């Protein structure tokens, strides 16, 4: 079967209520923390995407069983470091940087060496960011050029560390938090603000973790070696998946949408601040608290007069996965939008900053790049009528989504490759588009 889709028609005039797939970051964390809990955790509405299925396969290889009954995964944990690791174990994290970096944090006490591998995209990504703190804990790590494959062998002589995390990476912060669970004493992290789902989950489980907020930073203290009980968790919708439908609605004519039950944790909704500053009127309704997280429905309407933004870089971490689609809005806004310090985008599933420039040029948008800063010259009348094809994007799911939303809002005759990349994070993506009336071949 062909692994591409063709889009030749824009999508306008819809008024729909939708639900997007469950949150990927929370799903992976729920699986990994359940593997360390005592007893059977029950996780409902878990995202069934490749990254999360690889997380489930990973814990099963480490001796943790799970079953699925209706919409609920039952994960049988044996407490901290309750893995049963066979000799020559090889774990495959597939495309998932989150799984790969987080699982290393749970292997700090492993008695046998474990080899961690990943797909072509993951094998190009930097692991020094986690290797460095893991070595400070006392863990043995072997890796060529700080890439996968990595061989990790735990130790019984773990020592707590005090670490400054300057990238603003939740994956690095969480790897250290998970390592701290198995380490005696108190581990301290001074971390540039980033998504905080792990901290909120541990807090809701009664785990001794303390967080002091500084401006743009957090100081986190984790007491090691405290067992925690199994738990129940219902995973909410993913704002990163919702963001493509938010922009679809904004840029389509005469359209409205409600996206139900989305996680709107402050550390994740940079896109909503940014788009509202550009003139969108995105409203969060029906807010509720859930295990420290905040969940709401998102109401969006089409908008004509979007204006450029001078985007403050303090929002970078809270919109890091959404910039690709934000750039599309900037391309349709009046004026020159400015974005700064986006080097981390090039450390994702593909070199997203490089590809964003290539993509904007492909659709005829003037873009200037100075190192990791972009100026995007917007044009509210931008419409496409030629043929377009995006190539060589390492099957990056978010680039695939970006091309689809561009085709449906700006027009043109599109061939979009690597359709199966949607399975990484948002398997329902094309089904929802079809429900809205999109013509996809
Ligand atoms: C994630 C953190 C972010 C994000 C990724 C998911 C997480 O990466 O880009 O898609 O679940 O912790 P970094 O922490 O490396 O910025």
What is shown here, in short?
With 441 residues, the protein is of the alpha+beta class. The chain has two domains: 4-22 and 236-435, Enolpyruvate transferase domain (UDP-n-acetylglucosamine1-carboxyvinyl-transferase, Chain, Alpha-beta prism), CATH 3.65.10; 24-224, Enolpyruvate transferase domain (UDP-n-acetylglucosamine1-carboxyvinyl-transferase, Chain), CATH 3.65.10.10.
Question: How does this structure look, described?
Answer:
The protein has 2 domains: 4-22 and 236-435, Enolpyruvate transferase domain (UDP-n-acetylglucosamine1-carboxyvinyl-transferase, Chain, Alpha-beta prism); 24-224, Enolpyruvate transferase domain (UDP-n-acetylglucosamine1-carboxyvinyl-transferase, Chain). It is built from 12 helices and 22 strands. It has helices spanning 24-34, 50-61, 97-105, 128-137, 170-181, 197-204, 239-251, 270-277, 323-332, 352-362, 397-410, 429-436; strands at 4-7, 15-18, 38-44, 66-69, 72-78, 89-92, 114-117, 140-143, 150-153, 162-165, 186-192, 209-214, 217-223, 232-234, 256-263, 283-290, 293-301, 335-339, 366-370, 373-378, 384-390, 411-417. The strands form 6 sheets. A 4-stranded mixed sheet has the order 2-15-17-16. Helix 11 (397-410) links the parallel strand 21 (384-390) and strand 22 (411-417). Helix 1 (24-34) runs parallel beside helix 3 (97-105), helix 7 (239-251) packs parallel to helix 9 (323-332) and helix 9 packs parallel to helix 10. It is globular, with a radius of gyration of 22 Å. The mean pLDDT is 97. The structure holds shikimate-3-phosphate. Shikimate-3-phosphate (S3P) binds at residues 25, 98, 169-171, 174, 194-195, 320-321, 344, 348.
């Amino acid at each position: 079967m062909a692994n591409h889709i063709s889009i030749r028609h824009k999508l306008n005039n819809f008024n729909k209520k939708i639900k997007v797939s469950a949150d990927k970051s929370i799903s992976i964390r729920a699986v990994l923390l359940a593997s360390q809990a005592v007893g059977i955790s029950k996780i409902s509405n878990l995202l069934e995407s490749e990254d999360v299925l690889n997380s489930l396969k990973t814990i099963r290889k480490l001796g943790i069983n799970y079953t699925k009954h209706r919409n609920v995964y039952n994960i049988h944990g044996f407490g901290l470091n309750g893995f049963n690791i066979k000799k020559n174990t090889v774990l495959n994290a597939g495309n998932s940087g989150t799984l790969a970096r987080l699982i290393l944090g749970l292997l700090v006490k492993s008695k046998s060496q474990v080899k961690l591998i990943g797909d072509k995209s993951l094998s190009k990504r930097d692991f020094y960011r986690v290797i460095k703190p893991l070595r400070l804990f006392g863990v043995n790590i072997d890796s060529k050029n700080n890439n996968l494959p990595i061989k990790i062998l735990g130790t019984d002589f773990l020592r707590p560390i005090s670490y400054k995390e300057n990238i603003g990476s939740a994956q690095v912060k969480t790897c250290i938090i998970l390592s701290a669970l198995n380490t005696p004493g108190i581990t301290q992290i001074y971390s540039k603000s980033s998504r905080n789902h792990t901290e909120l989950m541990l807090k809701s489980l009664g785990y001794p973790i303390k967080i002091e907020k500084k401006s743009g930073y957090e100081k986190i203290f984790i007491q090691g070696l405290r067992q925690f009980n199994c738990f129940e968790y219902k995973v909410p919708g993913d704002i990163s998946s919702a963001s493509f439908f938010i922009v679809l609605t904004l840029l389509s004519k005469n359209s409205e949408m409600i996206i139900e039950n989305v996680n709107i944790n402050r550390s994740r909704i940079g896109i909503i601040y940014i788009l509202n500053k550009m003139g969108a009127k995105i409203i969060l309704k029906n807010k509720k608290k859930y295990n420290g997280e905040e969940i709401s429905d998102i109401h969006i309407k089409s908008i004509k007069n979007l204006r450029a933004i001078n985007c403050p870089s303090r929002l970078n971490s809270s919109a890091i996965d959404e910039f690709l689609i934000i750039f599309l809005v900037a391309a349709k806004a009046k004026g020159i939008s400015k974005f700064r310090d986006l080097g981390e985008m090039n450390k994702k599933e593909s070199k997203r900053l490089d590809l964003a420039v290539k993509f904007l040029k492909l659709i005829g948008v003037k873009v200037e790049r100075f190192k990791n800063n972009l100026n995007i010259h917007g044009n509210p009348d931008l419409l496409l009528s030629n043929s377009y094809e995006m190539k060589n994007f390492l099957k990056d799911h978010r680039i695939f989504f970006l091309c689809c939303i561009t085709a449906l809002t700006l027009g043109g005759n599109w061939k979009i490759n690597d359709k199966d990349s949607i399975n990484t994070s948002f398997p329902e993506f094309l089904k929802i588009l079809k429900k809205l009336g999109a013509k996809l071949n």
